[in-house]
Amino acid sequence: MQSKENILTCTEEVRVRFNETDPLGIVWHGHYIVYFEDGREAFGREHGLTYLDIQREGYVTPIVKSTCEHFLPLKYGETFRIVTTFVNSVSAKLIYTYELFNQDNKLVCSGETIQVFLDSNGSLCLYNPEFFQAWKNKMGL
């Protein structure tokens, strides 16, 4: 369970590009997972936990689960906001939730991704790597 006081979020504004849409001008469903990636990248830059930071420490964080629920379509040329929230867990994993809001501030889609830590040998980490625990402590988690 996450304390309301220490919720870490990041908001990123994005514009739908032509190549992300189908012939009807609607965003193809597979691009929403890419938008989640955009949210994670922005979160990492804002809060000091980028993929490059993780790699420098000798770890990779593959996604082991992703969910996405669609409520409204996005269309070519529209702007939208990705709100990415880190979900604190005692387990050695990165859990993020996502909410995408259109320019009318209506919820377009929501989702979640779960990533685990693998060390340089490709072994699953059962405990938080030291650098990650230090980051969580710094963030008050």
Automatic annotation (TrEMBL):
Record flagged with keyword Hydrolase: yes
TM segment ranges: none
GO molecular function annotation: fatty acyl-CoA hydrolase activity
PROSITE patterns: 4HBCOA_THIOESTERASE
SUPFAM superfamilies found in the cross-reference section: Thioesterase/thiol ester dehydrase-isomerase
InterPro entries in the record: 4-hydroxybenzoyl-CoA_TE, HB-CoA_thioesterase_AS, HotDog_dom_sf, YbgC/YbaW
Keyword set, alphabetical order: Hydrolase
UniProt key word Transmembrane helix: no
Alphabetical list of Pfam families matching this protein: 4HBT_2 (PF13279)
Family, per entry: Belongs to the 4-hydroxybenzoyl-CoA thioesterase family.
Protein's name according to its UniProt entry: Acyl-CoA thioesterase
Lineage of origin: Bacteria, Pseudomonadati, Bacteroidota, Flavobacteriia, Flavobacteriales
